[in-house]
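SUBJECT: A protein chain and its fold
Encoding: whole-number codes for local backbone shapes
Chain under study, with its fold:
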Amino acid sequence: MSWERELRVLNEAIRRLNAEYDAFLYGSAIRPPVDSRRHVEEMFRRLSASPPDAASERYLFSALQGRYSTLCERWERLQAEKESGRRPGVHGGFADPVKPGDHLPGKPAAPNAPAAGSVREDRSTGESLDRELFDRYIEARRGRGDDVAGIGFEAFRARLQEEAHKLKQRTGAADVEFEVTERDGRVKIVARPQTGPGSGVRGPK
């Protein structure tokens, strides 16, 4: 098998392994994918024993090693959170929905609100919520080995405002919630009309 094909096979094996870990961490899988992880690590050992001659293939192999190392750190951290009884990863910092009486009029929502924020009429509080959502988004992207160097907070916040405005026009909702989620192997921001009391998260008027 050529090195080009070996690298494609290895990349696909890493992608499948990451999906299996997501199923374990966030879905219905009961056990971590130990056998699949062992298989990927065996592939790395085999390929490391006879590195390619071409510089481009050596670079790609090194990049896969770096990405895999980052993913291993992420899996171990999130598994530790799961085993300690916390919801792992980007959802781990969110508390259960606020109960009646927990959020009093005039009192800012707790930092661990059910969904991190968009923009509120109170601009200072809104910026804090936007920053929390931005930090969670960047952390999740880094956890997947993505390059986040070109993602700026102000552009991110402007996109939140745009999405909130469009959703409110389309649905007539007064409030908009945002959350960070992982779907189809990608980290995404999901906007939805606010459906329950207590989060205090609003889009722009």
Observations:
- The first helix runs from residue 3 to 26.
- Residues 91-193 form one domain.
- Residues 13 and 170 are 41 Å apart (CA to CA).
